[in-house]
Amino acid sequence: MDYWPSPLIWSALVSALAIPLGLLLLSLAGRIANCGTRYLVAVAVACTLFAIGAGWSWQISPFPETYFLDLVPALCILATAIMLFETFWSLLAFGFTMNILLCLHGRPEGLVLGELKALLGAGQGVDAVMANRLLMLKKAALVRETPAGLVLFGAQGRLMALVGRLMYAVFNIQAGVKS
Amino acid sequence: MNAILTGLGAFAVFALLHMALLRRGDALRSVSAIFALSMCVHVLAVAAEALLAVRPNYWSSAGVYWFLLMFWVYCYGTAYKSLSVRMLVRVSQEQPVAAQTLVADTAEGDFAERMNTLREMGLAEESGSRWRLTEAGAASAQRLKVVQRALGVCGSSLYGWEETKGPE
C-alpha cells in the first residue's frame, strides 16, 4: 500500500494545518475581535494556500489522471480539517457547557443555581443566552414572530426544521425540549 | 477510484454500526465511543484494502472516509447539543409557540441537562443547594482558560452580544 502522500495530498495536509496556525496568528495580531470572522479568515487563508499548492502539484505531476484522482481525497482532507477545527473553535468561543464550567471556576464556595444562571452569557443570564439563539434563528429567516407566537418562516424554515427532525431520527435523539 | 469506493464502504459500515449502537444505550453516545468505533472500522478497511485491492492507496480511501465521518460527527454534535436546532424543531412541532415559553423551556431543560453532564463527567458536584467544581473540573477550567487566552477568545464577545441584542 502506498502511504506516502502525493504532492496534492501534501498541499491539503499543509493547508489544513494552516487553520489552527492562522487562528493563533490572528489572535496574536488582535485585529479581528469577532471569533466567527476570525475563523472565516483562517479558512480563507487555508483555501488560498491549497489553491496555490494544487497549481504547483499540477505543474510537477507526471500523470494528469492521477492528479484528478487525488483531487477528491485532497479536497476531502481540507474539508475535514475545516469541520474539525470549527467544532473545537465553536466549543471554545460559544460552548454553553464550557460557559457553565468557567462560571463555576474560581468559586470554591460554589454557586446556587440562580446565581449560576445569572452569570451565564457574559453576565446576561441564561434566558438571555436562549433569547440570543432565538434571535439567530430569526436573523437567519428560519422562524418569524406572529401575534399568535413563533412559526417557521418560508420554505427554508420548513426545510431546516425537516433536516433537524431527520437528524434527531437518525441519531435516536428525543425531539423537543428535554426537561 | 477503488480507493475512493473503499472509503465510502468503510463509512457506510461505520454509520450503520453507530446508528445500531445509539439505539443500545446512552453510554455509547460519548465522543470516545465514536472515536474508538471509527478507528476500528478504519483499521479494518485499511487492512482489507491492502489485502484485496490491486493498487491500494491509503490517502485516497482515508481522505474520503475521514471526511464523511467528520460530516457525520458534525451533524451528530449539532443534533445532540445545538440549542438553535432544538428550538427550531420545537417550533416545527408545536407552531405557533410563544417566544417566552420557548426561551424559558429551553433554558430550564437544557441547563439542567448540561449540569447533569458536568456531574456525570466528574467535573462538577452538588452539595446542599450549591454547585461547585471538583478538582478535575477546576483543572479542566484552568486549561480551558489558558487555551482561550492564547487564542484571544477570552474577553471577546462570547455570544456576539453587541451584534444581536436589541436596543437597550
Structure characterization notes:
The complex is a heterodimer of chains A (179) and B (168). Chain A has 179 residues and is mainly alpha-helical. Chain A is extended, with a radius of gyration of 22 Å. Helices cover 73% and strands 6% of the residues of chain A. Chain A has three domains: 88 residues, no CATH class; 44 residues, no CATH class; 38 residues, no CATH class. With 168 residues, chain B is mainly alpha-helical. Chain B is built from seven helices and two strands. The radius of gyration of chain B is 21 Å and the shape is extended. The chains are: A mainly alpha (179), B mainly alpha (168). Chains A and B meet through helix 1, helix 2, helix 3, helix 4 and strand 1 of A and helix 1, helix 2, helix 3, helix 4 and helix 5 of B.
Key structural traits:
heterodimer, A: 179 residues, mainly alpha, 3 domains, two-stranded antiparallel sheet, 7 helices, extended, B: 168 residues, 72% helix, disordered C terminus
> Which class do the helix and strand fractions of chain B yield?
mainly alpha
Helix content of chain B: over 70%
Main-sheet strand order of chain B equals 1-2
Q: What's the number of domains of chain B? A: 3
Main beta-sheet strand count, sense and barrel state of chain B: 2 strands, antiparallel
The separation of the N and C termini of chain B measures 59 Å
- Residues in β-strands, percent of chain A: 5-15%
Work out the number of β strands of chain B.
2
Cα gyration radius of chain B (Å):
21 Å
Largest interface pair: A-B, 94 and 96 residues
The computed structural class of chain A is mainly alpha
Q: What is the overall shape of chain B?
A: extended
Architecture blueprint of SSEs:
The complex is a heterodimer of chains A (179) and B (168).
Chain A (H helix, E strand, L loop, with lengths): L6 H23 L5 H26 L3 H31 L1 H9 L6 E2 H11 L2 H14 L3 E4 L2 E4 L1 H17 L9
Antiparallel strand pairs in A: 2-3
Helix pairs in contact in A: 1-2, 1-3, 2-3, 4-5, 5-6
Chain B lengths: L1 H21 L8 H22 L5 H24 L1 H12 L4 H22 L3 E4 L2 E4 L1 H16 L10 H4 L4
Antiparallel strand pairs in B: 1-2
Helix pairs in contact in B: 1-2, 1-3, 2-3, 4-5
